[in-house]
Amino acid sequence: MNTYLVPESLAVSDSGFLFLASTGETFTLNEIGKDIFKMLQGGDTREAIEQKILELYDVERATFVRDFDDFINQLSSFKLIRTK
Fold this sequence. Notes:
By secondary structure, the protein is α+β, with helices and mostly antiparallel strands. The protein has helices at about 30-40, 45-55, 60-75, and strands spanning about 5, 10, 15-20, 25-30, 80-84. The protein has one domain (about 5-84): Arc Repressor Mutant, subunit A (Orthogonal Bundle), CATH 1.10.10. It contains 3 helices and 5 strands, in the order ββββαααβ. It has a 3-stranded antiparallel beta sheet with strand order 2-3-4, with helices on one face.
């Protein structure tokens, strides 16, 4: 069961705009990315996020797994999340 830590200085707007107050960096997320990021902020596990996204969007599980892993790797590389 994977959970993630999101810096408290990171804010996400309703439009998917991320702002990291500690560095002033900004990032933009698409709709699914915004939903996933808000779930990460809420402390949802990978499994819970997968279940919610598969219910909300027309996406195959294999596609979700691949894209989620890519998304997590990108967030990690920018130091926007850490694995708990």
